[in-house]
Amino acid sequence: MSSAIRLEDVSRLYFVGDTVVRALDGITLSIEEGSFTAIVGPSGSGKSTLMSLIGCLDLPTSGRILIAGEDTSGMDEDELALLRNRHIGFVFQHFSLLPRMSALDNAALPLLYAGIPLRERRKRAAGMLERVGLGDRMDHRPSELSGGQKQRVAIARALINDPAIILADEPTGALDSATGHEVMDIFHGLNREGHTIVFVTHDNALASECSRMVRLSDGRVADAG
Amino acid sequence: MLGEDIRMALASMAGNRLRTFLSLLGIMIGVASVVAILNLGRSVTESISESFEIGGLDTVNVMPRGQARETMIFTEEFAYDLMEEIEGIREVLPTVSSMANVRKGQEISEGVQVQGVTSGYFPSNALELDEGAFFGPIDNINRRQVCVIGKELAEELFPAGDALGSYVSVFRNQAKSFLVIGILAERDESLGASYNSTLFMPYNTYVQRFRRTDQVGTYVVKVAEGYDATAVADDIEGYLDEIAGSDYYRLFSPATVKEMSDSVMSTFSMFLAAIAAISLVVGGIGIMNIMLVSVVERTGEIGIRKALGASPKAIRMQFLVESVTLSLSGGLIGLAAGTALSFAAVSLAGWSLHISLGAIAVSLLFSLFIGVFFGWYPAAKAARLQPMEALSRD
Ligand SMILES: Nc1ncnc2c1ncn2[C@@H]1O[C@H](COP(=O)(O)OP(=O)(O)O)[C@@H](O)[C@H]1O
Ligand SMILES: [Mg+2]
Q: Residue B25 in 3-state DSSP?
């Protein structure tokens, strides 16, 4: 099996005043295609930093990151934007939906940047919302949805471009455990369809359901699973 | 994509109506004042033009003055000389005039403008009759004592309205009787002359009866069709300077005055519009301010869009379109307000409104330019945001 994601000696330093924060400190890690990986570790251990580097939302201070075999370190902003748009789907802890848009338009947003015409965007977003069980909430604004429903809109949005990789940073963190399990079921279903999934969690029970568990500690890999 | 950007811009404007309105005030006021000033300038110019046209833009008046008679140039033959020397003249009508008292029974009009003209003078100056007839060439040759008088003069001397067919006495040393054969229709003043209280008599009659005490006559030069009256006036001036010298005549041409007045008016209104345009810069700063606030407020949104695959170019475009949509909306509202304002002002003054198409084009182009210019920096700022930074800043 080839690596969907490969990190080679990746470090991310933050310079705050005179002090240097080593959020990630020499991480080398491969994540296989089609795997379902849980990232665990104490708060401040660098989990979110790792996710944003994998998702090309941030650049490492040193080291290389390869997505589907492609080295991202030489890419310019347009190429990174294209990569995020086509290959990566994000699910954030706090949903990160645009408040003035309907569920339908939120879910369709990545298609806008893929240059898909409006009708097609709406059609595909509607299909995706049906799939996550929100067929009857398409015209609702985020403020009119529950936490679980919002997270499902966010998942529909992450899936809309059919990305190979889905990244979720504590997707259940803001949900009660029942809703959290529903969301996890969706992820398991997606994994069975072949998506590579990386998600961050504090919940050991949820983590143990995954095919692999990577433990971070102080910006280093404590247990590669 | 552009359609989507415009939709997003309108949604964001609608989401914050009061703030949008306030930030657009500057550009609205700026555009409104530029449009109002240019419209007003144009309306004033047009109304002045109309009054010139009544006076005849195809006319050049040559008036001998000073010791002109001693030069022996300004004789009746001079009319033919002029026609031969200068190209573009249809006819030259010699006229003479002076002030005299005119009486009918108890009624007396003092200081009436008495003019001796040939019959061609009437059509040339677009004079029309209220009743009666004009005198003709035969009256001139026979030096008949007939006259055509202005409406006001007729009413003054004949309160009963029976002027036509009556005699009036024209005083100059001694009284002479003239038969009233025509009364002019009333008409608007043009360049201070309306002919409403003028008394016209045949040129030869005047010369025979009044020449001894006379004033200097005027040659009314009519410019032929297809020729520029201003150019013909210049030619005549050149010719006269050569043969007589500038001290011996005065030249007056409505077309030349109109040209000057047009250029003064347009310079003046351009000048005022330029001052008003300064407020457009203030308006632009208002737009820039609101866009900067908007970028800061929507940092999270920008982060999300970038995470979902928006390129820097797409973000820059989104904010530029928003800024242009803002400024164009302000410009359109300003255009409407300015037009309404100029309409109100023009109505008060009793002129008719002439919309300056230039003002519309300039104000819309200016709004577009301001949207791009003052939106550029905020949009570039939005485009430069790093997605992770933007996302974690809520
Ligand atoms: N923008 C930043 N500036 C400075 N320090 C940061 C920044 N983002 C994260 N950090 C630091 O990096 C470390 C790792 O953070 P993070 O990846 O968010 O941890 P986790 O998600 O595991 O809780 C923490 O010590 C955090 O304080
Ligand atoms: Mg975190």
A: helix
Ligand nearest to the CA of A169: 2
Interface mutation target, options A77, A92, A157, chain B, most CBs of B under 10 Å = A77
- Asked if B312 and B364 sit in the same domain, the reply is yes
B28 and B137 co-located in one domain? no
CATH number for the domain harbouring residue A140? 3.40.50.300
For chain A, say whether B388 makes contact (Cβ under 8 Å).
yes
pLDDT tens digits along B20-60: 898 899 899 999 998 898 888 888 888 877 777 766 778 88
- Closest to B312 (Cβ–Cβ): which among A55, A77, A112? A77
Reported pTM: 0.74
| The length of chain B, given as a count of residues | 394
Model ipTM over 0.90: yes
- Nearest chain B alpha carbon to A110: B308
Report whether residue A46 contacts ligand 1, using a CB cutoff of 6 Å: yes
Burial code (b: 16+ CB inside 10 Å, e: under 16) for B186-219 equals ebeebeeebbbbbbbbbbbbbbebbeeebebbbb
Percent of chain A's residues with pLDDT above 90: 76
Same structural domain, B306 and B280: yes
Q: Which of the four pLDDT bands, split at 50, 70 and 90, describes residue B70?
A: low
Determine, for residues A84 and B391 on separate chains, whether the beta-carbon distance falls below 8 Å. no
Crossing angle of helices A77-87/B299-307, nearest 10°? 70
